[in-house]
Amino acid sequence: MLEIFKYDFMQRAFIVGTLLAIILPAIGMTILLKRLSMMGDSLSHASLAGVSIGLFLGINPLIGSVIICIVAGLFVEFIRNKLKSYQEISTLVILSASVGVAGIFSSLSGSSTNITTFLFGSIVTISDAEFYTVILISAIVLITYGLIYEKLYLSVFDREAASLMGINTAILDFVFTILSAIAISIAAKTIGSLIVSSLLVIPVITAMSFTKTYKSTLIASVIMCILFVYIGLFVSYSFNLRPGSVIVLIAVASLIISLIFKK
To answer: How does it sit in the membrane (predicted)?
Structure first.
């Protein structure tokens, strides 16, 4: 079993998987509590549009993914603020637009095969440049999240009280949207744009079945997500399967088991 660590590509996969397993539940918990669970789907499809644009322009697809995800995240916030009574529509609009853009630019660039690899991810085939890019972006996301953690906690549960305490919720939303877009874009490249939204939400929901506080739920969801990733990598290596698909199926199975035994 330990022979898996003899290969450089698997060592990179475990490192990247660990970083994403820490970031995604942290971002996903806030998204879930804000009732914006569809945001993960919207931004993951936006990352696919970014990849297709990057391939069309001849630039690094990961850079294109990050840029378009940030733009899409900002548009989600813009539409939410304009349609306060129907905020959930914002994610649907961006998702629809992203699918359309991805389809057009993939046709123009003739790179439909390359686009397919981003649908299910390629965590075991990331290049050295992508590996170091993921590490750098992950460090930025984690540090920034740590700095805004308490303010984010307050704004999620009592937005008015947070404003009265001097927290600029508009700027906080802007920063969190940027963090979400960056995290989802790098995750979409490594574990798949069709799968990333599942790891944003499923570990958090599973953890909620066994915990009672915000902090304990966050810690438990990160631990669970790390386990999902590790088990998924071992299983996919043993049976020559797509790691992203295996990871998400393990996460779903764990959620179902937790719901069955939930008191």
So the answer is: Multi-pass membrane protein
pLDDT in tens, 188-197: 877 887 778 8
CB-CB contact of 94 with 44 (8 Å) = no
What was the pLDDT predicted at 81?
80
Query: In which band, very low, low, confident or very high, does the pLDDT at 111 lie, cut at 50, 70 and 90?
Result: low
Half-sphere exposure of 121 (CA within 13 A, CB side): 30
Cα separation, 145 vs 135, in Å, equals 15
Domain count, the chain: 1
Share of the chain above pLDDT 70, in %: 94
CA distances to 8, 29, 32, 248 from 215, rounded to whole Å, are 35, 10, 15, 24
DSSP state of 139: H
Q: Is the dihedral of CA 59, 60, 66, 72 positive or negative?
A: positive
Provide the domain limits for residue 61: 2-261
Q: CA–CA separation, 70 vs 185, rounded Å? A: 9
CB-CB neighbours of 63 under 10 Å: 15
Q: Is the pTM of this model over 0.85?
A: yes
Average pLDDT over residues 122-142: 87
Residue 48: name the closest of 197, 251, 235 by CA.
197
Q: What are phi and psi of 158, to 5 degrees?
A: -150, 90
